[in-house]
C-alpha cells in the first residue's frame, strides 16, 4: 500500500449549521448533503471548488450513543491540528480580519511558505499553508 495524501477530515460538532457556516465563510468551502451518512444522523460534506471532499461534518447530537464520549471543544489528546494547502494568502488574511477571528501568522517566506493558524467553532486547530503565495 502507498498513501498519497489525506482524503478528508471528520469533525464532530454540536453546532452543525454554525460550523458549516464557518467553513463556508472562512475557507470558501462549499456545503453539500451527505447521502452516505447513517440514517437519522445529520451532517455535511464541505467541498473545495472542484467538488472534492475536504471536511466531513457530523452533528454528534443526532447520533445518540455513537459519539457520547466525544465532546467538541475538549482535548483530542494527541491530535493537534489539520493542515490545509491553500492559495490566496492576502485575501484570506483580510477575510479573517473582517470576520474578527483570532489567528496567528507565521512568516517562513525564506522557504516560500506563509501560514495562518486559527481554530474552528469546535476548537479544531487549523493550519493554513500558503506555498509561494
What does this structure look like?
The structure is a single chain. This protein is of the alpha/beta class and 133 residues long. It contains two helices and eight strands. The protein has a four-stranded mixed β-sheet, covered by helices on one side. A four-stranded mixed β-sheet has the order 5-8-7-6, with no helix packed on it. A hairpin with a 5-residue loop joins strand 3 and strand 4 (53-59). The protein is globular, with a radius of gyration of 16 Å. The N and C termini lie far apart (33 Å). The mean pLDDT is 89.
Concise overview:
The chain is an alpha/beta fold and 133 residues long. The protein is built from 2 helices and 8 strands; from the N terminus they run βαββββαβββ.
Topology pattern, helix = H, strand = E: EHEEEEHEEE
Q: Helix tally?
A: 2
Could you say which overall geometry the principal axes of the C-alpha atoms support? globular
Walk across the major sheet and give the strand order.
1-4-3-2
Terminal Cα span? 33 Å
Helix proportion: 10-25%
- State which percent range the strand residues make up: 25-35%
Query: Given the helix and strand composition, which structural class is it?
Result: alpha/beta
Computed over alpha carbons, the radius of gyration is: 16 Å
Write down the overall mean pLDDT: 89
Based on DSSP secondary structure assignment, what is the total number of beta strands? Answer: 8
